[in-house]
């Protein structure tokens, strides 16, 4: 495993509830225009993390995997929407371009599961979250910020997860 730089955050979750709580903390930090990219195999906890992010962001909507509908929308009480995109079934960058990610980002934050499948069309700055299955309930999450907004977000998340460091 490579040595992580000072902006990268590593987190080990020991239960689905802990993964969801980490997501709640992330959700409290996001705002319209933010892009969270989730990468991980089936069963790595991506949708569990999204449940927490949506809850921390403030929606009361039911969070489900958008595998077949491609994009789910969750409404914040203020009227802003959180977009949850699943790129698993997209057949490449062209399919993703049709979704008009730039328009979604004007209307709210965007979470992308299987983001590695559409990496070529992502905006230049985002928070990449790599998730790995470690055991029945353990997950390894690596937060890799690209851009100053996401470096700040990762530092704040580090404080929320681990206290003052």
Characteristic terms for this protein:
165 residues, alpha/beta, Rossmann fold
Describe the structure.
By secondary structure, this protein is an alpha/beta fold. It has one domain (9-162): Rossmann fold (3-Layer(aba) Sandwich). The chain is 32% helix and 25% strand. The protein contains five helices and seven strands, in the order βαβαββααβββα. The chain has helices at residues 16-27, 46-57, 93-98, 101-107, 148-162, and strands spanning 9-13, 35-39, 71-75, 81-86, 110-113, 126-133, 139-146. The protein has a seven-stranded mixed sheet. Strand 3 (71-75) and strand 4 form a beta hairpin. Helix 1 (16-27) crosses helix 2. It is globular, with a radius of gyration of 15 Å. 38% of the residues are buried.
Shape: globular
* Quaternary form: single chain
- Which architecture per CATH? 3-Layer(aba) Sandwich
Helix content bin: 25-40%
Radius of gyration: 15 Å
CATH class: Alpha Beta
Distance between the termini: 23 Å
Number of DSSP helical runs? 5
Strand percentage = 15-25%
The overall number of domains is 1
Q: What's the helix-strand series?
A: EHEHEEHHEEEH
Main sheet attributes: strand count, strand direction, barrel closure: 7 strands, mixed
Average pLDDT for all residues: 87
Q: Structural class of the secondary elements?
A: alpha/beta
Could you list the spans in which at least 5 consecutive residues all have pLDDT below 50? none
In total, the number of strands is 7
Spatial order of strands in the largest sheet = 1-7-6-2-5-4-3
CATH superfamily: P-loop containing nucleotide triphosphate hydrolases
The CATH topology is given as: Rossmann fold
């Amino acid at each position: 495993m490579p040595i992580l730089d000072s902006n990268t955050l590593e987190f080990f979750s020991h239960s689905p509830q802990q993964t969801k709580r980490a997501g709640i903390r992330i959700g409290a930090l996001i705002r319209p225009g933010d892009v969270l990219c989730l990468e991980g195999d089936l069963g790595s906890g991506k949708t569990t993390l999204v449940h927490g992010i949506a809850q921390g962001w403030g929606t009361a909507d039911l969070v489900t995997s958008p595998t077949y509908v491609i994009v789910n929308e969750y409404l914040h009480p203020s009227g802003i929407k959180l977009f949850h995109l699943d790129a698993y079934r997209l057949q490449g960058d062209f399919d993703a371009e049709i979704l008009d990610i730039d328009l979604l980002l004007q209307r709210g934050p965007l979470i992308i599961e299987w983001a590695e499948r559409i990496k070529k069309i992502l905006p230049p700055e985002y928070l990449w979250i790599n998730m790995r299955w470690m055991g029945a309930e353990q997950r390894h999450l690596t937060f890799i910020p690209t851009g100053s907004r996401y470096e700040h977000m990762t530092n704040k998340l580090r404080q929320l997860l681990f206290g003052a460091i």
